[in-house]
């Protein structure tokens, strides 16, 4: 099949006798062939044939009367359909998705009918020229199976409205049929945390092809064949998008049911990582400094080393289909074993990333596309690039930050496999001691190859704060700035620079005073870290002697062991759902007991708070299917799910009670909104224990209802632990997984703090302790306020234990109480943060 036309649903209204369609120039600028576009996706016509314009104007207008099919959330691209059915993609500039909508103003919406010449998008051309890869704008006909380009403007200047391209419809017989016979359709909300990316697309295609029916998926009026993974990727279907599955043919109904079932319940995915507050560029930039975005905080002084990696050159022609096919199979097998071996030896985010790479390498759709290109005579390396790169680019261009993160992983796999095929090993980079590595971009495998003992920090021209390289750097504590842009390209090798990642600043030519100041700060931080670690084993008390329990949040026995090494006094939150993510069936009692026992053993006598399964919302579990919901965060979640599945609840409680010694585990119920839910869990627990109250049962306070009603709940609970991640989302009515509101999602909002105060007050009325296990407990600025509000237990990230313990040790509780009172009176979260920074000085 022609890659350009793969899977497009053909408009049925095209008549053979239709006259040519004229498209007029949608931009003022220099028209040229697609071959001139410095991006293989367009130059090799992977999305279709067309022309490009290097704009001189700032307004994109409609090239014909049309309906707007899709607009990208970041407003840098638009798709249109002409009345005759020709579908057009206009993509303003290259890599402009990375601007995140800055400099673009969308003047129309999906579904609008527009007339030729009507303004569609206004943009800041200067900004694009300064910050994007290029301003050149491809204009592409994406349903080339239905329309061919007859004439095109000669290279040269065009004004909007000038003749640009004419299209002829192809004969009806050449058009892919959508199927005959009965039809069926169903609209669902996509629960997959990362939307329909390569792996789900491949599974859907596999299922759809098993039925005697033509199956399509449609989003916002754009439809593609469900047999085409590449087509499905081009729809950019994200978590919670509405998707219509339609089929025509003898087995239409069964096909729709099977595809819907697969998408709703049949695909296991890691849950989406909770949104982090979007770091911002500093506005106050001292002279000689470059502003970037913080990916991993920290301060480093060092010597610039560079690693600029070019695309590997690959021949287009193969040396025989059989030889290329054999080389491809062998390279895939070798890379796959290497990834498996590295994953087996890794843990944490590194392991998750290696597993993701291995899964992508096993993607049948990708492998199939590469093999088809080899069969067409291309070299294996060219075929692999042609298969994987459009998918990476489609993800990056889709405007969904989480899907875009996967694009770097695909580029990484592209490079690793091509490297093997061409016999080229990335030579890596030899770092001087204390290097600040400057790179245009960095791939996860390249980060893994760095000598971290010599690396003081990372500074990246492009990149994003949530890319896998950023996650790896943060996990290894390497101060990292990304998106530093063009000025970083001019910093010379061997320059002595300061990377102030926490402040978002790269001092390229620091003055002696700035250098001296940074040296003093680095020395102080190092001493503080060493002291904190040395004293991590001490009991946690404030300066005035108040006992605070300092626990850690864990998701595995390995986390627990690491937490103990860092001085944790117990585990304040075991996220049990993390233990059983990668399975199709619920874990049985024996398995659960073994896993909980392993955590208890790793804690070596310290207490463990086991949270009952917290599934639903942003945490799907394949073995506990939940029907698609309009508002998953407000639907079946936490305790509501286990109450709806009594056997799951009973099994989990039985498993916890079987852990020895009895009583070492406390039980915690997530997402409580009212006393009745707690009483139902307590009734099952009482039945299992015969009423012996020798195991504590507490609740998580994650809803405003639980916080305001804490005294009522505490009458039946042994303790309260505040989940500030959810409490913040529900108090501020901001979805914790929605990047659009991530910048304002701050647990230091005074309304959240007031609810924390209410919880402590309600708990105290019933003589119950209140802790915090949400991520606010790991935030050094928040800790004095939390303790000032009366919180007596903190459960923090295992790596944060020494630092938070040291902070508590220096804290005077009376001062913290005054500080907390002042915080409650602040008008907003930024004012609280300002106050907290002053308090910390
Ligand atoms: C919370 O909501 O703060 C919490 C600790 O639970 P989770 O992040 O697992 O939802
Ligand atoms: Mg929660």
Automatic annotation (TrEMBL):
Main location: cytoplasm
Catalytic activity, reaction form: L-histidyl-[protein] + phosphoenolpyruvate = N(pros)-phospho-L-histidyl-[protein] + pyruvate
Highest taxon of the lineage: Bacteria
Cofactor(s) the protein requires to work: Mg(2+)
Domain HPr: 183-270
Record's keyword annotation contains Metal-binding: yes
UniProt protein name: phosphoenolpyruvate--protein phosphotransferase
């Amino acid at each position: 099949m022609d890659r350009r036309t793969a899977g497009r649903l053909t408009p049925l209204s095209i008549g053979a006798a239709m006259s040519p369609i004229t498209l007029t120039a949608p931009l003022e600028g220099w028209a040229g062939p697609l071959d001139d576009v410095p991006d293989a996706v367009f130059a090799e016509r992977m999305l279709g044939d067309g022309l490009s314009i290097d704009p001189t104007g700032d307004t994109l207008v409609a090239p014909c009367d049309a309906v707007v099919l899709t607009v990208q959330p970041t407003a840098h691209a638009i798709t249109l359909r002409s009345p005759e059915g020709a579908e057009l993609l206009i993509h303003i500039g290259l890599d402009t998705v990375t601007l995140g909508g800055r400099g673009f103003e969308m003047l129309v919406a999906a579904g609008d009918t527009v007339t030729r010449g009507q303004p569609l998008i206004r943009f800041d051309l200067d900004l694009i020229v300064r910050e994007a890869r290029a301003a050149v704008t491809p204009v592409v006909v994406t349903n080339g199976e239905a329309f061919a380009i007859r004439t095109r403007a000669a290279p040269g200047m065009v004004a909007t409205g000038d003749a640009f391209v004419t299209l002829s419809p192809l004969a009806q017989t050449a058009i892919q049929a959508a199927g005959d016979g009965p039809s069926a359709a169903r609209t669902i909300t996509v629960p997959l945390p990362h939307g329909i990316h390569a792996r789900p697309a491949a599974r859907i295609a596999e299922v759809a092809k098993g039925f005697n029916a033509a199956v399509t998926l449609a989003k916002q009026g754009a439809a593609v064949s469900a047999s085409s993974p590449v087509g499905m990727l081009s729809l950019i279907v994200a978590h919670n998008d509405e998707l219509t599955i339609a089929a025509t043919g003898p087995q239409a109904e069964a096909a729709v049911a099977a595809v819907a079932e697969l998408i709703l319940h049949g695909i296991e995915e890691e849950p989406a990582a909770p949104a982090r507050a979007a770091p911002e560029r500093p506005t106050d930039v001292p002279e000689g400094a470059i502003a970037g975005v913080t990916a991993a905080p920290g301060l480093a002084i060092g010597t610039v080393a560079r690693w600029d990696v070019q695309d590997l050159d690959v021949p287009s022609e193969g040396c025989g289909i059989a030889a290329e096919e054999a080389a491809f199979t062998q390279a895939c097998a070798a890379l796959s074993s290497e990834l498996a071996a590295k994953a087996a030896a890794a843990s944490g985010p590194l392991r998750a990333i290696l597993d993701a790479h291995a899964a992508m390498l096993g993607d049948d759709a990708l492998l199939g596309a590469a093999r088809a290109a080899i069969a067409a005579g291309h070299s294996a390396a060219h075929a692999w690039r042609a298969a994987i790169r459009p998918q990476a680019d489609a993800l990056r261009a889709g405007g969904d930050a989480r899907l875009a993160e996967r694009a770097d992983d695909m580029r990484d796999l592209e490079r690793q496999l091509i490297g093997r095929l061409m016999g080229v090993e990335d030579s890596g980079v030899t770092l001087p001691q204390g290097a600040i590595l400057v790179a245009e971009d960095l791939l996860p495998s390249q980060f893994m190859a760095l000598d971290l003992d010599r690396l003081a920090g990372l500074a990246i021209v492009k990149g994003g704060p949530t890319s896998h390289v950023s996650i790896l750097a943060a996990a290894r504590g390497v101060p990292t700035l990304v998106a530093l842009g063009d000025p970083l390209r001019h910093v010379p090798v061997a320059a002595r620079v300061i990377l102030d990642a926490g402040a978002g600043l790269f001092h390229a030519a620091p003055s002696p005073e700035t250098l001296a100041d940074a040296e003093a700060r680095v020395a102080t931080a190092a001493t503080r870290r060493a002291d904190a670690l040395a004293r991590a084993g001490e009991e946690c008390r404030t300066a005035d002697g108040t006992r605070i329990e300092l626990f850690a949040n864990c998701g595995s026995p390995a986390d627990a062991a690491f937490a103990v090494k860092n001085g944790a006094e117990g585990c304040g939150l075991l996220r049990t759902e993390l233990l059983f993510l990668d399975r199709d069936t619920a874990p049985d009692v024996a398995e659960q007991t073994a896993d909980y026992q392993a955590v208890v053993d790793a804690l070596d006598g310290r207490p463990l708070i086991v949270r009952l399964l917290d599934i639903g919302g942003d945490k799907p579990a394949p073995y506990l299917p939940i029907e698609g919901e309009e508002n998953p965060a407000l639907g079946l979640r936490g305790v509501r799910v286990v109450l709806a599945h009594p056997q799951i609840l009973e099994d989990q409680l039985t498993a916890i009670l079987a852990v020895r010694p009895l009583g070492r585990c406390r039980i915690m119920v997530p997402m409580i909104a009212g006393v009745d839910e707690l009483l139902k869990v307590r009734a099952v627990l009482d039945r299992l224990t015969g009423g012996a109250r020798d195991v504590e049962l507490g609740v998580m306070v994650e809803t405003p209802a639980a916080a305001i009603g804490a005294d009522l709940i505490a009458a039946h609970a042994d303790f309260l632990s505040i989940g500030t991640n959810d409490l913040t989302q529900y108090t501020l009515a901001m979805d914790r997984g929605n990047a659009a509101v991530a910048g304002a999602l701050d647990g230091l909002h005074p309304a959240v703090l007031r609810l924390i105060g209410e919880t402590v007050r309600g708990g105290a009325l019933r003589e119950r302790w209140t802790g915090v296990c949400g991520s606010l407990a790991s935030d050094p600025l928040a800790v004095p306020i939390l303790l000032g509000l009366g919180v007596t237990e903190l459960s923090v990230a295992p790596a944060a234990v020494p630092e938070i313990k040291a902070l508590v040790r220096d804290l005077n509780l009376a001062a913290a109480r005054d500080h907390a009172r002042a915080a409650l009176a602040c008008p907003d979260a930024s004012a609280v943060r300002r106050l907290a920074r002053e308090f910390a000085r």
